[in-house]
Predict the 3D structure of the following.
Amino acid sequence: MRDRALGSRNTRVSTHASAARAQVWRAALTSAALALAACLVTGLVTGPAFAADAPAAAPPAANAPGPHYAPLSNGLAQTPPMGWITWLQFAEDINEPLILQTIDAMVANGMRDAGYVYVNLDDGWQRYKGERSKHPLEFDPVKFPHGIKYLADYAHSKGMKLGIYSGPGESTCAGYTGSAGHEVQDAAMFASWGIDHLKYDSCCSHKDAPQPVVEGVFRTMSKALIATKRPIVLNACHCGWVNTWEWAAGVGANHWRIGQDISDDFDYPGNREKYYFDVLDLIDRGVGLEKYAGPGHWNDYDMLIVGLDGKSPWLVGAGASNVEYRTHFSMWSMLDSPLLVGADVRHLDADSLETLTNKEIIALNQDALGKPATRVRDDGLVQVFAKELSDGSWAVALLNRGSATADVTIAPRKDLQLEWDRYGVRDLWKHKDMGPYDIPFTTEVISHEARILRLWKAPEPAAGKSASAAVPGAAAGQAPGAAPLVAERTSDH
Ligand code: GAL
């Protein structure tokens, strides 16, 4: 598995992106790159923010007993946060009408009722670019004439929540003033505005900082947020460096990025621009990390690219097919990643909306047990992921990474170590029950598809009668009929 940084955006090359797109992107990031370069040149990474709440001595050895600090917890995000965020589609080009219209659109198109309640401002809401020691942190009065509290009040009046962005450095990735040295003050300001979620981003300001320092700056903000007594979910955004998953829950982070930024690609050869991760890169990156996640603390596979279709003016990537976006969404759900939509939800096409509001898939992500899927089989191009659910059923993803259709077999005894003699199968994209079966189940999986099945133990048939399988929670309302005890080879795409 990859570890640490693979590159950085201020050294990125654009040999694979089209010249035009690379030009747009470079222009958009000029200020961010300059700010990052300035941070590195001026040695800001050893500045005052690093001293904040960092341990004075070297951290204990990995096997030292007990936590380094008493763990912090805000008790929030018992299931992964769901919502929308500005960055992928809009970058710094955000304003009040966009946020109000987005809230209205999410109410009207059913997203709010499907569980997407957070509307999050990413970088670019701030008034000043430059260092915090030279400028205050305020909202941009041109972009947000009524201020941020106005947006939070509006979101709350619609049954939604508002998120905001800052970072522990003197400046953020896009070059705006950060929270360095003002954590308590900023947390109090966010709370007074009615903020419900904070993306706290150290990817640029602390890119090369050692782990105890990064841990320290997140701990400082986490404590400041908890002290406000307002429930504010904390996203520790450190691009998956210094093994964030090992310590982020202990400092009270509710989710943490496991990798560098996502691009709008399903399977790009290598890392686009020597920096970005595509969907398959992120799935690979998360293998083995599932043990760090659970209710209140989640691995974050980054924002959802469903619906971007390669058309974001800011983000690199050629887009993905509908099947690939579904696979991405299904896998993020299986892996208990936060589901933060990046596309413009005011203009979602029908396929994207159908994907994002599939309640049977969302139910996997929001399951109360909070156990992310593990990869139980790796046959190269075909991989099988399995997730235990609170009602005793299991969700299974049959992922075909290859370019040809594959027949994939799932056997509960062999693949899931379940002592089930008979089992029912529900296809969560076709919304169809099958079985019960008493032998392995084989199905076709097309290229780049993840077939998502929910399996449950079927009762033994009463003597002389055929049986129907009991339907698990999310599948209720569509009881399966009695079916022959044969494994079905489905090919009904
Ligand atoms: C990056 C982060 C992105 C976005 C951006 C804003 O560091 O990974 O998700 O927040 O900063 O400048």
Notes: The CA atoms of residues 234 and 253 lie 5 Å apart. The two ends are 34 Å apart (CA to CA). Confidence is low (pLDDT under 50) at residues 1-60, 62-67, 467-493. The chain is about 25% helix and 15% strand.
